[in-house]
Amino acid sequence: MSVKGFLIRFMKFSSVSLIALLVVAAPPASAIEFISFGTGSPAGTYYFLGAGFASLINNHVPNVRVAAESTAASNENARLMIRGEMEMGLACMGTLNGIKEQGLDVDKIRLIAIGHTSDVHWIVRKESKIESIADFRGKVIGVGPAGSATLNVVSKKHLKNGWDLSFDDFSPKYISFSEVTRGLRDQTIDAGLIFAGSPLASVMELARDIPIRILDIKPDMLQGLRSQFSNVVPLTISAGTYNGIDQDIHTYCLPQMWICRTDLPEDLVYNIIKAVYDHPGDRDAIHPMAKMYTPENAFRGSPGVPVGYHPGAVRYYKEKGIWDHRSEHYE
User: Which residues face 232 on adjacent strands?
Assistant: First the structure.
């Protein structure tokens, strides 16, 4: 064999060996972490926020893919996390207390933050003879979907404790927000509850289609409710928020929780919350209620929640210097 031929064969052998060595030595590609983010009805604030947060996280956290899942909201989201079928999501304050009373292991869940509020909209057609919640007796009422805080907290607990109304007093319809607006249009329900952060696109659209009213809750009724539920917060929906609503509406809201499974890695949760909080321009563009997700708002009402904060969230709040001063932001 000529020297030239030997060199060619040696170079080929060396090249193949080097490629093989690189293949063996190359580190494996980082695995993608898939996260299911529980939201609510596509017509509600939960869904808009969850989808927006998912986009922010996907854009700013490497090797993570978050999918916003439309669900029956609070109770279903919490139960799916407890069963290990969902990683994180949104839930109304009071949800974990309720399912703990039912014997579920809420220690499998941790707080990430307290954020926006969900606002009580009891809606009727303008010509309806229903003037207050007390007039629900004998009527057909949209009370929210099964598994939601709309149903389990506002429609069941609040109607019972605030107005002495049980589901035996009227005909309840377990329907989503979009089905409530359809039911009011089609006159298949007399009143319906939409429990989400205002202004709501679905209510704005409904108010453009038909004349509506949002029931005003008198101060004495609200005070009675607050005496039993400390997380009830008075709210005024300003005149003009919705077409045809030409005076302020007095109602109430509840703070909402961003929660996750306890077993999620600390680094993962830290990077997720950092992606949302550290990009305020992108965050605030998601929905008017997204602006409420700030470190200063992250602790409101949290002493009443039966679980603590995830270590990844604690790490972020400590980094921002707010963790040791969180009691100043409980209200």
Answer: none
- CATH number corresponding to 118-254: 3.40.190.10
**E strand segments, 126-230:** 140-142, 171-173, 191-196, 212-214
Q: What is the DSSP letter of 71?
A: -
Nearest-angstrom CA–CA distance, 23 and 19: 6
CA gap 166, 179 in Å, rounded: 22
**What pTM value is reported for the model?**
0.78
**What 3-state DSSP class applies to 218?**
coil
321: tokens are 């210097």
261 phi/psi in degrees, rounded to 5: -70, 145
| Domain map (residue ranges) of the chain | 33-117+256-329, 118-254
Is residue 206 within 8 Å of 181, Cβ to Cβ? Answer: yes
- Residue matched to tokens 């309840």: 172
Residue found under tokens 């969230």: 313
Please give the helix or strand (H or E) that residue 316 lies within, else none.
helix 311-319
Tokens at 303, concatenated:
């002493």
* pLDDT single digits (tens) 314-323: 999 999 999 9
